Predict the 3D structure of the following.
Amino acid sequence: MDVAEAKKPKALILISGGLDSMVAARLLLDRNIDVEALHFKTPFSEQNEEFVEKFCRDMGIKLHKIAFKKEYLKIVLAPKHGYGSEMNPCVDCRILELKKAKKKAEKIGADFIVTGEVLGERPFSQKKDMMLHIEKEAGLEGKVLRPLSAKLLPETEAERKGYVNRERLFAIKGRRRAPQMMIAKELGIAKYPNPAGGCLLTEPRFADRLREHLMNEKKLTMLDVELLKVGRHFRIGKTKFIVGRNERENHRLSFLCSRNKNLSMLEVSEHRGPTTVIVGEPDTETIQKAAAITVRYSDASKDTLVSLRYNSKNKQLVLDTYAMPDSELRKYMI
């Protein structure tokens, strides 16, 4: 076969939408490699999906998506390799992603898998020994190319087979993004997200809320995750309730309540106020306290008797109560 007619090698790159994976993808394209991308969304993802789609579209890269649900929640509940700084099971998460990537690569006929990982950028999952352990557990030992740190890592199959030239790869390490930003500028990548964010499990406030939930509920469902993402959280005995902080959260809570029979809802009748969702089957005293907390976050003055509507699958009530004093409210706040 003529050299000109030779089939280009194909790579499947795991793309998060962050700077590192964007730079890695563009490097592959510049090396005359056929590139397809795989993007994962977990229940705790905060990536801008539209940004990922636009980048791939602009680069002419076919984008595949995989959404993790119940299988990911099992990892969060009991990660084999433990948690990172908060509730983030980064090692087990990466193993799961690479296992899925392996199947996708086989399906699309990709010759190798690529990530934008940088050695030492994350203290838990991006140490050299751990990175190599992760790919081994995923059944991809020596088959994952990390272009940004390749020269600091063992030679991969893609390099040995000549799909990429090791001398044209990089030796970046650590948390500073200056090298990637310089390469991005050279490659014409002008827009990319800030490094903050990405996974709620790494955020201390959310992680605390999740720990409290698991300690009391002993379970984690997709509904639980959706509720953990919004509102102010309170617990009275075995009952938890969530108070919306703004109109968007009120709408979200109302929607979740309408779709789940084990949720009940409180709303202020004659004043602007939050939507409150109650999880479980509260007794009358708990409903009354939840109503008083709801009034506390409404526009009604603290000395005004306020009417509220309570709706559940079993009962509908009209309640009248005053705002709960902050000194008492703090006892129930999660």
Remarks:
- The mean pLDDT is 94.
- The two ends are 68 Å apart (CA to CA).
- DSSP finds twelve helices and eleven strands in the chain.
- The domain at 3-187 is CATH 3.40.50.620 (Rossmann fold).
